[in-house]
Structures are given as C-alpha cells and as structure tokens.
Batch of 4 targets.
Target 1
Amino acid sequence: MTTTSIIRQLTASMNDTLSAFKLSERDLKRTYRKGGWTIREVLIHIADCETVFVDRVRRIIAEERPLLMPFDENSWITNFGGKNRDFVTTAMLFEVNRMTLIETLSVSYTKHQKRVGVHAAMGLVTLHDQVTKVITHTEHHNAQISKALRSR
C-alpha cells in the first residue's frame, strides 16, 4: 500500500462516515440486522475507535515498541453516554481524529511503516497492520450502515 492509496482510502471512508452523521433521526434508528447496533450506535463506535486508532498509530511512530491496549467497545458506548451523546460533538471527534491520522500518515507512513507496537492481546503490530485495520474497520461499518439504509 502506498501513502497515496492510504490517504485516498482514509479520505473516502471519512467522507462516507461524515455523510452518515447527517442522516435523519429516523434513519439513525435503523439496524443492519435484527438485534444489531443502530446506525447511531455504529457511528458512535466508529468515532470511539478512531480515538484509539490515532493514539496507536502515533505511538507506533513515535515510541519504541509501545504497549497497545485493547478496549471494550461496548463499555465505551455504555459508559460515555450511549445514545444520549451529543451527536455533533461525536461527528467532530471522528473528523478531527481522522484528519489527524491522515496528516500523520502523509508525513510519516513511508518511513515508519515497519515500526511495531506490542498489542496486549495480539502481539506485534506493525504500523502497516494498524493502518490496514483502520481502513478495513471503517469500511466494514460503513457497509453495515449502507445495508441498514437499503432495508428501508
């Protein structure tokens, strides 16, 4: 993966996600499967993960073999206000973190893509691995949002 292709993919998925933040209240209540998260909850999850991903990427670049901790995504949704979180602030959190990630990778990816962090559950993780995770994670959840909207 080249830096250019990474930036292109991160920008495209950012734009798709930001568009979803503008959906109607009715659409935000839709789910991609019975018993699954609502679109609102998926978007909150994406924003929470982006915070974690930016931290991991920046520490892999800046530190020598940093420890990368897992997090409990359900606890984050529950304990940070869940459905009652300010949605505008959540969208801004996602956008600022994604822009930070894009800026960081645009200047550092090529030089540091083989640097590693140590994930407490998964072991060694290269910068390349973490960036791939960011891209596939967002695309996966954006596909869930699209599926929920198709079931109108």
Target 2
Amino acid sequence: MINVMIVDDQALVRNGLAMIVDSQDDLSVVAEADSGDSALILAKRLAVDVVLMDVCMPGTDGIETTSRLIESEPSPRVIIVTTFDIDKYVFGALRAGASGFIVKSARAEDVIAAIRTVHAAMRSSRLVQLGGFSLRWFRIFRDRLSRRRCSTR
C-alpha cells in the first residue's frame, strides 16, 4: 500500500485528488492538509510515502514545505502539483528536492502513474517522467540548476 498525503489550500482540489487516489487498491490517502504548516505536523505523526504538494499556498508555500519534508527522516517523495508549469516553479521544486512535477490539468491516470512511479523510485536518486512533463525537460532544468550552483561557488 502506498500512503499518500495531499497538500492544497483548495478543498475542491484536495477532494478531487483524494477520490482519484482512493479509487486504486494499492493507494491510500492517509492525510490531507490545507497548508504547508499542517502538512509538516501531519508528516511527523504519519507514515507517508508520497506527498502531492501544491506550490502556491498561504503561509508556508509548497516549495518551502517540500524542502522541510525532504530534510525529515524518513522523508517522503514529493510530487509538485500546480496550475503553473513555468521555470521558476520547476527550479524551486528541484532545489527543494521534489521527485516530480505535474500540472493540475493532468489526467487522473497520469496522477496515479506519477504516484506509483515516484514510489517505485524511492530507493533511486533518478528523476522520473510524470504526466507528460518530459524527463528531458526535467534534466535540462536540473543541469541548469547544477551549473548555476557551481558558478556561484
């Protein structure tokens, strides 16, 4: 069973994602949070394998929450789920340690596949292709980020 936490400030989005996740025999929503701060508290108390994380939320945003979750032990895998597929969010997600990035316009099948793929790769440091967001683009962003870090040292 893959334990999933959904973090989004919009109840309709959380409920929709929960219905998609819970429709599968091997997936279970173990927590829902409407803020990054709530997610951090819940993650400490529950066994969470994969987090579906919104980027733009009041208070602690999804990027900062992802970074703090990744630093915790045991750290869940995080998939950034957002309406925005622009560079600054992808860079932020990569810097924070997200395992994937998927837009809210993705099909239900893509969300399910993303969760399973990220969970299967938990022991691997490789990036995975999620919901039409090509692995090639993720690698390009990762490489750009790496070059920027190296050039600032």
Target 3
Amino acid sequence: MALLNEKDRREMFRLRRTIVRAEQALSEIDRSILPKGLCESDVSILERLARKGARPVNGLARQVGLTSGSMTSAVQRLRRRGLVETRRDLEDKRVVWVSVTAEAETIVKRFSRERGELLEQVFHKWSERERTVLVNLLRRVRKDAGETRGAAV
C-alpha cells in the first residue's frame, strides 16, 4: 500500500470530518422528532423490527450496532413501555425473539413520515443523479471501510 503525501493525507481527514458532520446534522434532525421517552437506538430497534419482523435479540444487536448488554437493556425498557414483546425460541431456550407491538408500529410510521418530510426539505434541491451518486459513493466508503477493517484485524 502506497503512503499518501501530506496533501492527500489532509484531504482524507477532511473527507472523514465532512462525512461525520453530515451524519451529525442528519442525526440532529432525527433527535428533533424523536417520540417522547425514546432515544435514537430505541427508534432504530423499533424501525428494524417493524420493517423486518421478529428477530433474535443477539442478531438484532448486531444489525443496529449495539452491544448485547445495551440491547438487553433497550429491549427491557421497550417491553416495559409496551412497544415490544419477547418470547423464547421453542427449540433453543437460550434464544430470545423480539417483535414490535401495534403501538410501536404506529410510532414508527409517524416517525418515518415526519423524518421523510424533513429529509425532503434537506434534499429537495438535489437532482436524482446527485442523490444516486452520493448513495453509491457512501456505499463504496462502507464497503472499503469494511474491507480495511477486516484486513487490519
């Protein structure tokens, strides 16, 4: 792997900061419309379950980027609020499945609608081509970062 010159290295760091700042700005939009009493990870869990259906807790943790301990706490919190239900796997009692309730589905639909309206305001001046290019570039970053992380281990 070739070493970057100083100018290119600064450009890589500038690129990284720009991506992080864009994500922070979009996350701030999400935080501004979070349903009362829910945090970003709670909404991520509910969105994933509403979209994909019941999931084992350990697999869901990986999918939304939480540790198993954080996921356990989140599921317990959401269950107390009546937003998820849990059940043990019939064949492997160590596995706990989690699914959303009807109330959670309603919350996710409202949040998604509000988020969509705000994202329209953010991206309404962007052409379809610009949005497609950005999506493809960010997918490439994700893929290349994953490959780099795998190589570094």
Target 4
Amino acid sequence: MGWLQRLFAVRLTVQGQSMEPAYRPGSRVWMSRFSYLFQQPARGDVVVIRAPVDDRRLELKRIIGLPDEEVSWSQGHFAINGVKLDEPYAHIPPAPPGDDERRAVRLGAAQYVVAGDNRLASDDSRTYGPVTRSAILGKIREARPDAQVVIMT
C-alpha cells in the first residue's frame, strides 16, 4: 500500500465479539480517516472510537444516537425520541428476568450513543455513557484480507 493510501485509511483487525455477527474476531477492515471531514457521523455507521475508559484502546461500534436526541434503551433495544429503533444488524437475545429497567440520556451538541451489535458482549454507551465527536476516529468502509492494526470490540 502506498503512503498516500495510508494517509487516508488504516487497515484494522477486529478482536472481541461485540460487533458479531457483522464483524467477527479476525475480520479485517478499512477505516477511513477522512469520512467525516465534510459530513457528520450518521445513525448506523460503524466507526472506530477511542475508548472512554482507556484512550489507548480503540473500539469498533455502531452509531445509535445523534446529537440533541433523547436515546433510551431497555433489554438491549434502543429508542430515539420515544420511537423504537429498527436494528436488523443487532443480535439481541432475550433479556434475563428482571432486566427490564429503561434508561435514557439526552445528548448534547457533540455527543453520540454507540453500541456493539452483539448487545450481551458489548461495553458501550450503555456502560460508559455518550462519546464525543472527537472520540470518533473514522468510519469502517469495507472488510479486507490484509489488515495490520488490532482493534478491540
């Protein structure tokens, strides 16, 4: 890969199970560094974030909630401004008995809710709260067979 291509994209290898079934451990993906140079992250985008609990760790997550929205969740399902979100990509097994508490957050101007597709195996905004725009490093573009950098999900 040439130096110009490396300037715009990074090859990554997925570790962990939080984005299954779409991205399995060992999957290789391209992260575009400049996807959001002229546009904002959109709901459903799969992104690489700097983990809020350890800024040396990178995580692969899906954008769920956008700035200035109210995002609520219960039993692994999300709602935006009171409307249940259709998430065909998500793996949401039945919740254990007693796990029906609804939680909600009102996002600020530069805040996002992110989550793993495999809800039982994901630490995400349900655990550590919203992420800021500056924590979103890039957008996943496509799977590739020759990744180099390792990211956690």
